[in-house]
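Example record

One chain of 900 residues, shown exactly as stored in the release files.
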Amino acid sequence: MKRNRDLEKSYSPEGIEQKWYDDWISKDLFVAKTVNSPQDGAPSPKGHFSIVIPPPNVTGSLHMGHAFNNTFQDILCRTRRMQGYDVLWLPGTDHAGIATQNVVERDIEKGGATRHSLGREKFVQKVWEWKELYGNRIIKQMKRLGNSCDWSRERFTLDDGLSKAVREVFVRLYKKDLIYKGKYIINWCSRCHTAISDLEVEYEDVNGKFYYVKYPFADGEGAKDDGIIITTTRPETILGDVAVAVHPRSENSRFVGRKVRVPLTGRIVPIIEDNMVDPEFGTGYVKITPAHDAVDYLVGKRHDLEQLQVIDSKGIMNENALSYQGLTIEEARKKTSEDISKLGLMVKVEEIIHSLGHCQRCRTTVEPFLSEQWFVRTKPLADRGVKVVKDGLIKWFPEQWEKTYFQWMENVRDWCISRQIWWGHRIPAWTCQDCGHITVYENDPAECEKCGSINIVQDEDVLDTWFSSALWPFSTMGWPEKNPDLEYYYPTSLMVTGFDIIFFWVSRMIMMGLEFMDEVPFKDVYIHSLIRDEKGHKMSKSSGNVIDPLDMIDKYGADGLRMALAALSTQGRDILLSSSKIETFRFFMNKLWNAARFALMNLDDEKKEIIFSDLRLHDRWILDRTQDVIESTTKLIDEYNIGEAARSLYDFVWGDICDWYIEMAKPSLHGDEGDKRRNASQAVLEHVFHSVLLLLHPFTPFVTEELWDAFGYGEKGCGKPIVISEWPVRDECFRFESSKNEMIFLQETVRVIRNLRAEAGLTPQQLVNSVYIQTENKEYSDILASNKSQLAMLCKVKDIEFMSDAGEKKTGGCLSEVTAFAEIYLFVGDILDIDSEIKRLEKDMEALQKNLSVNLSKLGNESFISRAPAEVVEQERQRSIEAQAQIERIKNNMESIRRL
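Predicted structure tokens for this chain:
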């Protein structure tokens, strides 16, 4: 085979990444098989592996959360593709109703227009124009990351096929009485003028006030100032109070049945009991305003209370607010508190900090608002969703998130699916202006289905973005039409997403999949970690700690970023990320590149066969280690332990291959051990690199494809691209179990001698004349003796002498260390300045003793032991043990040196 030995001295991702991505796309290597079609034929014996990508907002730009989620999915898809599965990774974007509408509104405002001045039809057309111009940005960014998606199947939540699916689902649910129109408390943004989901509400701590207000008894009994005291942060909503509630088992319950007079209005309302009241909070009395608080709304429904609205959809006090009509919420809050004080009913006001919800898009304070909306009756759908998880048909990784799912699903409320905006799936419901009947139909009707009138008007609202997203796993595959993709690739294999949308998206996909496909939408759910900065803080623009993945790709390459995100991840733990950590994995790319360059310069074009009789210990060991790594990497990826798999490969390449095997193979590769040994080392080196490039490919696709081609394994060498090459499997022929312990003997000895050299302050290249190894372990001495030349080379020693008798010890002028197998002596008497060395050792010992004193002081402090985390206490114990051992070793070495 023809190898490329003209690789650049260091790896440069510029050019290489785009070159290979374009090559993969041009050859349709990511296009999923259409099973049983003339061009693709029968399904793979392995079956299918399918994922639908969580669709990013069409307005979005790639952030670190996307980068990690996509990298995770790509690692799995590339691995399964190499393992022979029929892989479908279906990409797409979400129309992101409110977010996109806001972006376009801001854009047209620059030209002096508003959506209302344009009108609905023209404004929606403007949004489509914006989408065509900018909507592909995040798709291009995903490609830069290396996503191996089937772009020929890319979908958009507002494309024709998905729009048809949305209408079909709405109509079917409506006909089953699972969709209805009614009044309910929803999150309302008065600026966007629409209902918004809980996920679109962001909470932040703000300064506020706690008002203690007296509500006098209305029955005239007792003293003139008798009454109860309620607490509220919103005195303006007192105008909408219709009751006061207490907990049934609290001391306050003695007043249940009595009535109080609402300040400012004179309205007489009852004191009722309800379990929702926390008797420990505030005064234990809760004002009930059903039209302006979600909890109060439920209390009102239970007690059949009036829903009195005093704030309108624009955040202005309405006609029910009496003399406060026309004021903004903030103005009314100030005026009502002043007036309550004038009435002598303001007991006190406390300054507080409390959490307040704001619209994610425009930062307007979100109002609980009673509004007529469309809802999905969720409980019947949720019950089945709970059952399939309990029956094990869907598995959660990490498993702890299953409990969160159950908590949400078992306490589910009806889902508000209507939004008062223009961009989105318009609700397929038409109201007859003559008889009032609502016609719900898949296609636009010409007349009222009840009275036949043509005077019908379509509902102005659009559907919540999450409605169309809930159908994503099957609508993207062509439902409601039957087709090969839907029949073969559904249900999908896995859903990878964040914990914050388990309820908003994952649970709803499960409910809709069961309702319309009669199957779960995916078999596994993986909840990935959050990406935080290196100090553990949430990344945000306001904090200035956001790391842009595109900047990191520009600086360190996509492979460096992907490997960093993978290797830094651990199931159930957040990823603490920094630019310097990503740079570490850019160094890894260089390490792999340079090791490959060394291998290529020492391999012939002809591939050599591995002849077992010509192998030495380090050859057998690296072959055996390679089989271990193949087996463990495969298992870890199967278990979604991507982080551990990445770290294992990192250690294998950097440690086992580069630090040990290549160093030990250099003499034979250079011809110092004869032709047979050179051929043997070449054969082993080739096998190891062939395997490790395959294993690394899902993590670092670009550099591995470049090196695969350079080794001659690609199409230029009559092979095929690594992206569709066969995943390695463990080969029992290359298992050498005994090599593990034998190599441990050798490695431990090398480490000890290198440590002694470091203690002596020797430079890495400085040659030492002698090392003496005293041992009674014959197996140990035989292994070292048979690898004496390797040991001497690795430790920069001229001669190594083995002694079995303790009386043979040559300790004079030596630094020594005792191991589990032997006593090792490094002779330095002929190369050290004795006085300088003793001074250096004394200084080292003084520093160690000082640190030890601090450690022991902490460990002797009961307060530290009882309050510090267990792992911190254990770290201190280990430090003290290590310091004591080092001090003892320095004392012994000083004594030995003084005998020179």
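Notes: The mean pLDDT is 92.
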